[in-house]
Amino acid sequence: MSERLYYSRDAEIRAQRQQLIMILLAAALSLSVGTIATLLLSPRKGEDVRRMLGDHLSEVAEIVKERVQDARG
After folding, report:
1. Phi and psi based region of residue 14 (left: phi greater than 0; alpha: psi -120 to 50; beta: remaining)
2. pLDDT tens-digit profile of 52-64?
3. Coil, helix or strand for 72?
4. What is the pTM of this model?
5. Residue 28: C-alpha distances to residues 3, 31, 34, 57 (Å)
6. HSE of 23, CA atoms in CB hemisphere, 13 A
7. Would you list the domain boundaries of the chain?
8. Contact in structure between 20 and 29 (CB atoms under 8 Å)
9. Which of 22, 26, 48, 60 could form a disulfide with 44 if both were Cys (CB 3.0 to 4.6 A apart)?
């Protein structure tokens, strides 16, 4: 973080929190724009892309479920 002078520790923490929120919002916006552009410019039909995404998300959900069960056990 830059060398700034804060009047209190609370002010410094608030500034850091605001900076983190802005970074996360910028990342989410960038990811959204990239995803939309990819879907619009994809050479495949929308139905095929949706099916592939659904299949992939199902696989990821299954992996996450297994990992959670392993962590509990």
Report:
1. alpha
2. 888 988 999 999 9
3. helix
4. 0.51
5. 27, 5, 10, 19
6. 6
7. 1-41, 44-73
8. no
9. 48
Record the tokens describing residue 43, joined without a space.
């050479």
- pLDDT, tens digit (0-9, with 9 covering 90-100), for 21-49: 999 999 999 999 998 888 788 888 878 88
Amino acid at the residue 18: Q
Give dist(CA 15, CA 3) in Å, integer: 13
The predicted structure's pLDDT at residue 23: 95
**Token duo for residue 12:** 């410094």
Alpha-carbon separation of residue 37 from 28, 30, 33, 45, 47 (angstroms): 14, 11, 6, 14, 16
Q: Are 49 and 39 in contact (CB under 8 A)?
A: yes
Name the DSSP class of 71. Answer: H
Separation of alpha carbons 9 and 12, rounded Å:
5
